[in-house]
Amino acid sequence: MTSVKLYGYATSPFVRKVGCFLYYKGIEFTHVPVNPIDPRATIGHTGGAQVPVLEIDGEYRRESSELGLWLDEVFPDTPLCPPEHAAKITAIDKWISDTFLLSIFRFAVDGDMSLQFAFRGWRLAALLSAHTPLPEHVRNKWPELLLMAPFIQEMGQHMDLTETHKDMQIRITMELAAHIGDGPYISGFDTPTMLDMAVFPQLVWGYMFGLEESLSAAQHPVIKAWMQRVAKHLPSNPTLVADEMMVKPLSEGLA
Ligand SMILES: N[C@@H](CCC(=O)N[C@@H](CS)C(=O)NCC(=O)O)C(=O)O
Predict the structure, then answer these.
(1) Which atom of ligand 1 is the closest one to the Cα of 13?
(2) Are 51 and 12 in contact (CB under 8 A)?
(3) What is the 3-state secondary structure (H, E, C) of the chain?
(4) Closest atom of ligand 1 relative to the 12 alpha carbon
(5) What is the largest CA-CA distance in the chain?
(6) Residue-wise over 183-212: b if at least 16 C-beta within 10 A, else e?
(7) With pLDDT > 70 as the criterion, what percentage of the chain qualifies?
(8) Is 63 a pocket residue for ligand 1 (Cβ < 6 Å)?
(9) 51 CB under 6 A from ligand 1?
(10) Fewer beta carbons within 10 angstroms: which end of the chain, N or C?
């Protein structure tokens, strides 16, 4: 049997995305949690600290979108990127990577140490600690460490920081609804693709794991109906976070 391992933090959007690729394709895999203060212990063999890392039968690769294409090569059933739609998928995937996923880091890029940001940071540290226990002083400092993380600073270079965070969220929600259109899946495809799997876990995990009170994305009727459709293709916990950390089941948010 083919051995598949996904290395990464359950709190990383790129790792969650590849987790959903695997769930959607029905591939059995092992999630290997990476300790953010000692990534070398698990992914030292890659020569870097970037996650996700996907390993199939001992060969490892990085870059989440490319991992989707690699999974289709090795496991052609239930394609994430059907060849006839490749051009359209590539174009929207660029929007997802450069705009949608990037925007998740805006909290940390803005760098205002509000109480709201601190709570978010502490909760992220608690979720990480469910897999790789972090020392108390590191958990305590996690919000500050997030603000200083070089890869997050680097993401800020690719954002238009003259647009407010709120305006950015509204714009991106509208752009996502436009990509879904009449559906049933992103770009009007009849079956889900890597596009749906890249976006879906990001919208639901904060609600499920104590980062947001209500499922805010479900306020938009087009996005809510799409989430209800996508959820049917995934397990009830489509994230990589430990079930015992769940605060609210997704079924409640999508009811
Ligand atoms: N373009 C990459 C981005 C991956 C990425 O930014 N990963 C972050 C975690 S969210 C990371 O590993 N940062 C630590 C580092 O790069 O050293 C992908 O799509 O996989």
Answers:
(1) 10
(2) yes
(3) CCCEEEEECCCCHHHHHHHHHHHHHCCCCEEEECCCCCCHHHHHHHCCCCCCEEEECCEEEECHHHHHHHHHHHCCCCCCCCHHHHHHHHHHHHHHHHHHHHHCCHHHHHCCCCHHHHHHHHHHHHHHHCCCCCCHHHHHHHHHHHHHCHHHHHHHCCCCCCCCHHHHHHHHHHHHHHHHCCCCCHHHCCCCCHHHHHHHHHHHHHHHCCCCCCCHHHHCHHHHHHHHHHHCCCCCCCCCCCHHHCCCCHHHHCC
(4) 10
(5) 51
(6) bbbbbebeebbbbbbbbbbbbbbbbbbbeb
(7) 100
(8) yes
(9) yes
(10) N
Decide whether any atom of ligand 1 lies within 6 Å of the 12 Cβ: yes
Q: What is the pLDDT of residues 49-96, one digit of tens each?
A: 999 999 999 999 999 999 999 999 999 999 999 999 999 999 999 999
Angle between helices 64-74 and 194-208 (to 10 degrees): 120
Other Cβ atoms closer than 10 A to 65? 22
Q: What is the pTM of this model?
A: 0.97
Q: How far is the CA of 205 from the centre of ligand 1 (A)?
A: 18
User: Ligand 1, from 104, 151, 154, 157: best to mutate by most atoms within 8 Å of Cβ?
Assistant: 151
